[in-house]
Design goal:
four-stranded antiparallel beta sheet; 4 strands; disordered N terminus; globular; single chain
Amino acid sequence: MKASLAVGLAGLALAGCGGSSDQQQVHTTFTKVVHELAARNPAACDLFTKRYALENTGLSNYHAALARCRSHTTKHSLSLPKGLRVEGVRVKGNKATLTASAPGQGTGTFHFVKESGQWKIDSVTAR
C-alpha cells in the first residue's frame, strides 16, 4: 500500500466495531481499523472498500490488492498518535464521514460506505 495510507491512518485514527446506531458503528469500525493496523493484524484490510484497496495499491486486481494490503500490514508497524480523538461522525444513508485529529498530526476525514451491513473505509482526506 502507498505510504499515504499508513500516514493517513497513523496520523489520525481511533474507534471499534458494533453498537446500535450507524454513527456508533462507523466510530467502532474506525477504531478497529486503527488498532488492527497498529497490531499488524491483516484483518484490518477487510475493512477497506474494494475501490480503496485498488486505489491505494495501484493494482487492478482486487485479490492482489488485498494480498498486498495484508502483506504490508504484517510487515510495517503503525503507532497510534498521542491525543488522537474523533471530532465527529456524520451519516447520510449508506455513506458516512468521520473526522479525527491528533495534536501536531493534523486532521483527517475518513469517508465510509456501508457494504452488506458493514461500514468500510472508502477514502481518506488528510489536512
